[in-house]
Design a protein that fits this description.
homodimer, alpha+beta, SH3 type barrels, Fumarylacetoacetate hydrolase, domain 2, 2 domains, 8-stranded mixed sheet, 5-stranded antiparallel sheet
Chain lengths: 408, 408
């Protein structure tokens, strides 16, 4: 590995070397929300360093809409600034310690779509939610199943996770009851941020993924499994998901992920031509880590995902629907074949029936008030470096006491 | 009925009398998109008449965010202007013939939610899609089932309906095929537009509906039933809906609907307290009319809806999810008990198995290229007047010829 290219003091094992350069929105006591790039322990203030008003809007949207040539030009500029010591005097005043910044949601999201593209996850959920039926529905190997989530409930990493209240009905109950969710869960996912919009009526071919998508973030799709199980037939998840979806603050450009590209796993079922991704290598060799209270509890491998993000984008636009700048689509829970590779507590505890043990022996199933969950990820970068995706975190706080509903 | 209160020449049977005053966004050759109010055959240019920049933004959002006191003050002002001849010289230059305006999507929608609140519709669909099972799922009488739709595919009435392409698999087929939908349908719905946002984590009580919702429009949730049937298990409708959802241009204020409020139908199953709407009278006595090529084919009665919009809003926020200004939630297809009261061709033709006949004897099932569909609605206004909701229309055009998907 080598970060010797920079005049900045970068740790050998930083995941935020010159190979990464993720974009995000930050503020400090004296800097209003603006665009920055993470490098080592600093944030480069792009508003200040470039003087370009596109970086002062408080979201990445305007820059993302500018498209791949603008993305590449900025990346080259920043790489040059951080490599050539001649630029040090210009750049230095615009470097802010990462410890001093507050991060914000990086994009204003128009539509948020959540897919369901891990075969291991889908099979696990099918076995847990629909025992006695085939774990995969007949459509699963033919299309990347997805649904729309609530864009207004997206929030940046660190936002408290207020335990949601709602209806749930256990099979043994005659009637539904109302109260705080007792099966609060995570879903460790990878998200894809659209930069260049598509044209309504014109599908995005599977090979045009990088013409539209700017980069990659982490997503925790918090889920209330008791609410979800009661509500989701026939129109899908709704309140079981819509209370909060957390997003990591740094969006890693696709340009940083060339070394992470890989062939997806072999598929046993042939796909229709619009989903044919032979040779495209849009599998991504990310390794996620899920920590509960700081303790590693799962290591989901993204390179095992059945459907790639290029197929997801091709599918969601094949009916003529367009994507807009800032749209976010997520992979669905990332789970691998191993028990310690499952990206949800639903799976780690097999629906609560098989608690898993923390290092001190404490048995755990779903989330308890006070739990802190952090999802991180890294991917191989060029020259043996690692690309970090930072983290998406959240701490569970008790359900709010609310006054009895007013009906008059 | 009486429109004698106005110095304007209003037809006795106009649905756009002083009792209505719906808001929309219009433009003309020399007026950029701005807020207007429909009255008789005119549009009152609020940007010009009030001089208030809130009406020049090209969406209703900023005005809707101002809340009920601002809504009431403007309504009183416009009523006074159009009633007292002393204001004629001020108002007259700001009246534009409706025939001369182009209408636009009235709001910038953050999240779009579609409910499923007609019992007759849900039972019909259950019988058609899931023969042999109970027509209603066990949760249906306990909560207003809903799901998120694609906000980016919302478009104003008149937008062409390009027949979507996608995957579908008939039960007799071994494998899915790809192509233009052969079961393109409508869903005649009523939509509710949020003005005042709610606070994340704080549910909106069922009695606070009018503190948040500004008004009502019509929605046609175009649906590709073959795509939908293949994709919707287990996460709900996705591409079968996301290609286009059309919205009527005029938003009728709740203030215009006092005479239309009614008790919803009796419910056989008790609801949880947060959904208890006893005495609230948020049923609405709207009568929809669905026309195919100008011919009336269905008359769905909105007063038969099982769940009211007040219950829908209470439900969608009970888990802590917030609504934002401009959010739109729709009722789901409006169907009554009669065969000629069904708000979709799926139901009118019983899944295509029982074609219905046009006046000239032509048997019809799903939409054909060239079909024009118009959904209109009226409701009782004060003093025997009628409140018109205008119309939401669309004409089906053939699927676009697209180049074979590029995979490299």
């Amino acid at each position: 590995m080598s970060h010797s290219g920079s005049w900045l003091d970068l740790a050998d094992d930083t995941g935020f070397g010159l190979e990464n350069l993720p974009h995000g929105i930050f503020s400090t006591a004296d800097r209003a929300p603006r665009t920055g790039i993470a490098v080592g322990g600093w944030v480069l203030d792009l508003a200040g360093a470039t003087g370009d008003p596109v970086h002062t809007t408080g979201t990445l949207n305007a820059f993302l809409a500018a498209g791949p040539p603008a993305w590449a030009a900025l990346r080259a500029q920043v790489t040059d600034w951080l490599t050539d010591p001649a630029h040090r005097d210009h750049v230095q005043p615009h470097l802010v310690p990462r410890a001093d910044v507050t991060m914000h949601l990086p994009v204003q999201v128009g539509d948020y779509v959540d897919f369901y593209s891990s075969r291991h996850h889908a099979e696990n959920v099918g076995r847990i939610f629909r025992p006695g039926s085939a774990p995969l529905t007949p459509n699963w190997e033919h299309l990347p199943i997805g649904y729309h989530g609530r864009a207004g409930s997206l929030a940046v990493s660190g936002t408290p996770v207020v335990r949601p209240r709602g209806q749930r009905k256990a099979p043994a109950d005659d009637l539904p009851t109302f109260g705080p969710s007792t099966r609060l869960d995570i879903e460790a996912e990878v998200g894809f941020v659209v930069g260049v919009p598509s044209t309504p009526g014109t599908p995005v071919p599977v090979g045009a993924f990088a013409d539209h998508v700017f980069g990659v973030c982490l997503v925790n799709d918090w889920s209330a499994r008791d609410l979800q199980a009661w509500e989701y037939v026939p129109l899908g998840p709704f309140l079981g998901k819509s209370f909060l979806t957390s997003v990591s603050p740094w969006v890693v450009p696709l340009a940083a992920l060339e070394a992470a590209r890989t062939d997806p796993p072999a598929r046993g079922t042939a796909v229709l031509p619009y989903l044919d991704d032979a040779g495209l290598r849009w599998g991504l060799d990310l390794t996620l880590e899920v920590r509960l209270g700081g303790e590693l509890v799962a290591t989901p491998p993204f390179d095992q995902m059945y459907w790639t993000p290029a197929q997801q984008l091709a599918h969601l636009t094949v009916n003529g629907a367009a994507v807009r700048t800032g749209d976010l689509f997520a992979s669905g829970t990332v789970s691998g074949p191993g028990r310690d590779q499952r990206g949800s507590f639903l799976e780690l505890s097999w629906g609560g029936a098989e608690p898993f043990a923390l290092a001190d022996g404490t048995p755990r199933t779903f989330l308890e008030d006070g739990d802190e969950v952090a999802v991180t990820a890294t991917a191989p970068g060029p020259g043996g470096t690692r690309i970090s995706f930072g983290e998406v975190t959240g701490t569970v706080v008790p359900a709010l006491e609310v006054a009895p509903p007013v009906t008059g």
